[in-house]
Amino acid sequence: MRIRLVVLAVLSICLTPFLVGQIIGAQKERADAVRNVEQGLRTSINRTRDFLMDVQADVENMASLIAANDSFQRVPPAECSENLNKIRSMDKRIEHISIMTPKAVVYCSSTSSAEGIAAQGPSKHFKSIRHSNTFWGDIHYSSISNTVVISSVSVIKKNDKVEYLVVISLTVSALRNDIFDLFQVPLGKAILVNGKGETLDSAALAQPDLSFDQTTIDASSSIEAGIIAPRTKDETASYIGVVKLPMNDARMLFSTPLKGVYSREDQKLGFAIVISLFEVIILAATVMTAIEFFFFRTLRKITKLASEITSGGQGQRISVKSPFPDFKVLASALNLMVERLDDASKLDSLTGLANRRALDVHFEHCDRLLADEQTALAVAMIDIDGFKRFNDRFGHAAGDNALQQVGRTLRRVARRGTEIAARYGGEEFTLVLTITDAAKLYAYLDSVRQSVEDLAIQHPDSPFGHITISIGYAVASPGMTMRQTVEMADAALYASKAAGRNRVTAGQASPPIAADI
């Protein structure tokens, strides 16, 4: 008993510096993590500022183009509205585009129901007339769309006489969502305030209960683009990012909570302490067990643990020469684990086909065969027609199911030794086949196309009414590389798409086959 206590005490003393080092390291990591959050927020704020300036320039350029083309106001309002709606549809951030008379009455609009409406608060329109350039108004509630917008007003003049006004309004919610995508750090809440400090719009994310106090809002009024540091260091602390809109005096405030950073680093510290204590206990038990049982029981435990983790983890194959059978069992278990992980890394988890990594390795093998002039191979590039529209209509779950069905169909195609069916990326697939006869290859690939069409997966947005595929193929002759062949097949695939999709097209280096599917 005394020996056990002595061993435990010695090990504890030896590991104390390690424990202290873990605590110091955890504190340093916490400080580094906070600095990383600050840097990430600062970068995101700068990107947001640049984005808003680009949006302002895009809108003003669009207004200039409309102003330069007097055909809009020379046609009936209905036709003018239709033309404006086409322009509006090019940018999802634009809520509406209107052409108004000098008295701020809508002549035509991308929102046709707005024709004849008199704008509220016309002073901004007259200010635009006086300045004869683009003027951005305050963020306001649109009487046309009943949404919060920010509008620009530009004047159309002829012979120094004001004829019409071009009004382009941006939807604040769409603009806000685009800005969220620019952030590299998690956001808790975002608000939009005017020059008076009044909140015009807000979005609750990870901190729905957070309220920006008046002190913070007042401090933001002097910041063009920057950060307000947290006043506390507890779990309620947050960095506040501020960006002034270049169009007017409004500002956007973003909170980045530090609670997650503090919690994560505290967990690391707690984990380090637990690990250190655990190591003391394990090491003491190991030494005492080795003394008492000549370390065989520990070896069996390690062997059991290694056998249990054969379904995960990474490592290298090892070879052990030992008179103890337990070492050989351990080596076998670890090698089996590596083999399983290696097999899993070569398959696409969704379709069960070879993944891009496995395809690249197979291409290297095929290149060696082609260089030695041992064989000729064919490469087919396959793309699911209109798959984005299918995903948009039915959702990603239905899209994944469609990819799985197509994958099962293609898995039955490549069966010979050097053949492979792989998912190239997204909805694109690759086949490497040993069939190189022009007529047979075309017929075989056309049967693949028909097999996918026979799945009868409904696709209302496709001209065929169901999911189809387009195929482009090329033959890799000895001396060529697989990459060259893929490029030829890819060009043929684009030719299939351009010709109407749901067809098979040969690459330029392959004998042409007439087809009209």
UniProtKB/TrEMBL annotation:
GO terms for molecular function: diguanylate cyclase activity. GO terms for cellular component: plasma membrane. Residues 375-509 form the GGDEF domain. GO terms for biological process: cell adhesion involved in single-species biofilm formation; negative regulation of bacterial-type flagellum-dependent cell motility. The chain crosses the membrane at residues 269-295. Pfam families: GGDEF (PF00990). Keywords: Membrane, Transmembrane, Transmembrane helix. Its EC number is 2.7.7.65. InterPro entries: Diguanylate_Cyclase, GGDEF_dom, Nucleotide_cyclase, Rev_trsase/Diguanyl_cyclase. It catalyses: 2 GTP = 3',3'-c-di-GMP + 2 diphosphate. It comes from the Bacteria. It is an enzyme of class 2 (transferase). PANTHER family: DIGUANYLATE CYCLASE DGCM-RELATED, REGULATORY COMPONENTS OF SENSORY TRANSDUCTION SYSTEM. This is diguanylate cyclase.
